[in-house]
Amino acid sequence: MSVEQYQKEEEGQKQQQQQFFKRCQECYNLIVQFQNDTLPSGLVPSRHEGYQYDPELRKSVKAKIQLSMQRLDESISHHGLKEIAISYNGGKDCLVMLILLMATIYKKYISTTNEMGSHDIHKIPADYKLDSIYVNSETPFPELAEFINESTEYYHLNPIIIKDSMKHGFEHYLSNINTNIKSVIIGIRFTDPFGENLVKEQYTDHNWPKFLRIHPILDWKYVEIWDFLIGTNVEYCKLYDKGYTSLGGVENTIPNPKLKLPRSEEYLPAYRLRDNADTLERLGRIKKEEWKQSEFHTSSKSTTTH
């Protein structure tokens, strides 16, 4: 590589990092405004006028934000930013996790000053990029694939897409793509499959490639995830507005039957699922052949949860 090529590449990395820091600042400002009820879009943006605002729920979300950002700050301090990546599949939980992480990075390294009155941004490596790992063996919805591409570009992440099983995909990533990574931030919640016995940090087991799993939104509830996304007015995958509440592959995911409108083929948006939402969230995870033969597909009776 010539000196000119090296300088050009170095300048490109610098610009990419500056753009990433800018998004981190935007995420931080978003959090501050959300916490203070000062967002320009108000408590509920007009485009989500069907959302039922609950002041007690909003209060709970604000507390969860503080706790999650505290956990993320501690994890970054203990393990080092350069050794941390995120698992990002474009879903609602991962999106909340990403925004909280980027806000934490800004607060920790850029917004605060040390005793000498200067920023701690110099503690971030000059070539730093936040790897967003998407390991998937299923056929994704086009809308989801599009959102993953758009959001990783918008937030200036370093997208790593691997078509494989989760276990083999992470093994390949850690061994061949980024050997510096020792920890992965994952947007799993207690109510997710295999989530009930997790703690905020723990190492992989059962012959998985070894890395530390960090779970900053472990104790968030479904309705809290949606109150955050609605309240902050951020863009999310369009499938959620079509009644999908949990996103898997094309062959095993349908809109949530509980959101189906009576005598119609249309569905309410995902944020309208409120009662027993954590229990009913994955009701749309079913093979389509089974769904076609089920009572949910043939019944015109209303099962909507408001």
Give an overview of the whole structure.
One of its GO terms (biological process) is FAD biosynthetic process. Pathway: Cofactor biosynthesis; FAD biosynthesis; FAD from FMN: step 1/1. Keywords: ATP-binding, FAD, Flavoprotein, FMN, Nucleotide-binding, Nucleotidyltransferase, Transferase. It catalyses: FMN + ATP + H(+) = FAD + diphosphate. Pfam families: PAPS_reduct. The structure is a single chain. With 306 residues, the protein is of the alpha/beta class. The protein folds into two domains: 212 residues, 3-Layer(aba) Sandwich (Rossmann fold); 60 residues, no CATH class. It is 42% helix and 8% strand. The chain has nine helices and six strands. It has a six-stranded mixed β-sheet with strand order 3-2-1-4-6-5, with helices on both faces. β2, α4 and β3 form a beta-alpha-beta unit. The radius of gyration is 20 Å and the shape is globular. The C terminus is likely disordered.
List the SSEs and their pairings.
Elements lengths: L2 H34 L18 H25 L4 E4 L4 H20 L19 E6 L5 H13 L3 E6 L2 H12 L5 E3 L15 E3 L8 E3 L7 H11 L44 H4 L7 H5 L2 H4 L8
Parallel strand pairs: 1-2, 1-4, 2-3, 4-6
Antiparallel strand pairs: 5-6
Helix pairs in contact: 1-3, 2-3, 2-6
InterPro entries: PAPS_reduct_dom (IPR002500), Rossmann-like_a/b/a_fold (IPR014729)
Keywords: ATP-binding, FAD, Flavoprotein, FMN, Nucleotide-binding, Nucleotidyltransferase, Transferase
EC number: 2.7.7.2
Short note summarizing the structure:
The chain contains 9 helices and 6 strands.
